[in-house]
Amino acid sequence: PAAAGPTTPPVGSGKGKTLKMARNAEPFSPFVPWQIDDNPALFLSVNIYDSLLRTSKDGRSVEPALATKWESSSDGLTWTFTLRDGVKFSDGVALKAADVKASIEQCAKGEKSGWKDIYKAISEVQAPDDKTVKIVLSQPYAPLLSTLAMFCVGVMPADMATASNAADFDATKTRGTGAYMLSGWKKGDPVVLKQNPNYWRGLTGPETISIEYVPDDNSRILKLQGGEVDVIDFVPLSQIQSLGTQPTLNVKAFTIQQFAVLVMNVEKKPLDDIKVRQALNYALDKEALIKTVYFGNATFMNSPIPPGTYYDKSLPGYPFNLDKAKQLMAASSTPGGFTLDFSVASGNNTAQQVATIAKDQWAKIGVTVNIQQLETSVLRQSYRDGKLSIFQGGWTNDMNDPTQIVNYAMRGGASPFAYWTRYNNPTLNDKITKADLEQDTAKREAAYAEIQKIYLEDAPMVPLVYPPATAAWQKSIEGFFIDGLSYYRFEDVKINK
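Above: the chain's sequence. Below: its structure in token form.
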């Protein structure tokens, strides 16, 4: 815990200025922190809502946000948080402990929360007074502080948190304590964020943020080069070097806790056969992908957990081994091969290249690949509905602990269905629960090592690489930064024009 921030918000140089950004995909889920399950909505949410804590820029520790200090009871079951003085929502109403209580309760137990598994140890949230929040646990929970820095426990006013379950709730009209606010949005239009005039850290960023959604990589780059936008993200790695030579632009590949995979629907035959899934893994040359698709700007993915806390660097992953792949196919339920529909998002050059290489390499084990290009919104709805056989997906950690990824991407039985693979291993589910609750650091590390090993062997995904996050921006833009969990906070940006 550290001291509280400024009591009088400073006014920065962003007044009257607009930052224009082009992103690759628009938000899909509502702007309700605990209902968010896509990165475009998440990236906006962290600029609108604050949590009790926030993750440090390197993604490896937590620091104060709405709470300035906290302490645990001797038995580890009761945690007491003291709220920061002077915090107001964007409508000018003061933050109270009841707002934090209502928001955490919705995330931990609400009917529309997609993150309940991470907060299963919370039995009660109390607000004994306006400045104090108490969280009572059913048993000691090692990753609690990390979970309280996540986006999904972003704080809304209590009345909004409760109303967010209603079918007619308008999540595009926000009231948060974060640096920016949203007064409405229609899909297909740019998202326009305005500064929160009551932001407790001060008005330091641009007054307005305008984000348009341009799925095609080349179109985003042209908009940047033409000066139509100030910042773009998801710069193709093939363009990093050439953009870096342009005198008016900055371009960077940021190291973050992220992976790229091929997601297989294990309920679709023959992907329900572990031998088939393992064969597809061994038959795809990831080192070749790193050279030809990622231009050397990625590393081989050996574990289903990105490098970070409890990542097991000793796991072998699935190195290219065509002979082993052929042996597995020969012993599988489809020794004569099969046809596989591979779905990619239109305009996503990286996914298209990966699919093309997979088509060529998997043909050598008797698999005929049909590449299907879908609009991003159609692709997302289709994999949520379980209609796709295989598609390229990615994961970025949202906390400095593996609890999130093992519950979201590996635990089966409920949405998001082990990251849309429909994989469900009851034995692994039980091990995940026990690992999440283990207090001993060495035992936790051993438990997560076993979880990684089991999941890797069951192969509901094809691990590809650990890629960087990429962005490019005009040199008139200062302070743009993608942190270790891939967040960018517009409050840190300065426009020098």
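DSSP finds 15 helices and 21 strands in the chain.
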